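User: quick one, sequence for these tokens?
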């Protein structure tokens, strides 16, 4: 007679049992790998703390890892993998997490949104945003996004936000610099001070030179930890606009004043 196993605690159960009484997760048919046996001896490992994930999402990730043949083990809700597999595991974790939204009730009235003009990246950003907002959704065979009619207003709002963010990202291109912590605070603070100087005196040549340099750097910084990407894209957009205005030899003071005050105002929200 075959056994079933809990992938988190390795308890063995008779075939009829479907979930672990201890961990709550659905069982698997193969005994799990002990975490210390993941990878070669002394090979670096990474841990994913998935305490806040639902049982279903953890079970789904377990299934994805097994079907991809990625060596892994669990210590309770903590997943252990080889450091070498980190990127692949990140992708699967994202897949398991976004698939784990609330289920669309088959009984309610539904509406569909055509996704033809949405790129794959934009669609996955939309799915993530719907998941975060707890909006039940699915895609039909034609690739239309299906939601409950009663969620229409929320979904319209989320679609607008995501579309705006995607458009901003397209305009800005992907940022290449990683700046965090104190260095980031300094940069944001400096740009804000310099922008305020130009608000007071648009002809301040020293501040102009310094601001062109710093705002140019700022416009190429990736979304730092602790910022939502929408707010950050706005900051990048304002910084890049500022550089554009200041780099124009025929700039007029009104344009400088306008760009500097919107930039300073955007930054005053975060520094
Ligand atoms: Zn268990």
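Assistant:
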């Amino acid at each position: 007679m075959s056994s079933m196993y809990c992938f988190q605690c390795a308890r063995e159960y008779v075939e009829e049992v479907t979930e672990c009484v201890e961990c709550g997760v659905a069982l698997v048919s193969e005994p799990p790998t002990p975490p210390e046996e993941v990878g070669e001896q002394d090979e670096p490992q990474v841990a994913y703390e998935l305490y806040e994930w639902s049982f279903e999402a953890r079970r789904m990730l377990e299934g994805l890892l097994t079907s991809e043949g990625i060596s892994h083990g669990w210590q309770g809700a903590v997943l252990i993998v080889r450091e070498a597999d980190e990127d692949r595991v990140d992708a699967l974790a994202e897949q398991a997490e976004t698939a784990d939204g609330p289920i669309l009730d088959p009984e309610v009235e539904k509406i569909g949104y055509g996704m033809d003009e949405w790129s794959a990246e934009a669609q996955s950003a939309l799915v993530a945003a719907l998941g975060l907002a707890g909006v039940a959704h699915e895609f039909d065979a034609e690739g239309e996004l299906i939601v409950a009619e009663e969620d229409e207003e929320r979904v319209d709002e989320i679609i607008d936000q995501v579309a705006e963010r995607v458009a901003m990202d397209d305009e800005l291109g992907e940022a290449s610099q990683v700046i965090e912590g104190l260095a980031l605070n300094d940069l944001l603070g400096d740009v804000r001070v310099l922008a305020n100087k130009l608000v007071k005196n648009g002809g301040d040549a020293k501040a102009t030179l310094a601001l062109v340099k710093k705002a140019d750097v700022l416009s190429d910084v990736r979304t730092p930890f602790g910022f939502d990407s929408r707010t950050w894209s706005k900051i990048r957009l304002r910084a890049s606009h500022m550089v554009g205005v200041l780099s124009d030899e025929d700039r007029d003071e009104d344009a400088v004043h306008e760009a500097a005050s919107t930039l300073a105002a955007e930054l005053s929200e975060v520094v």
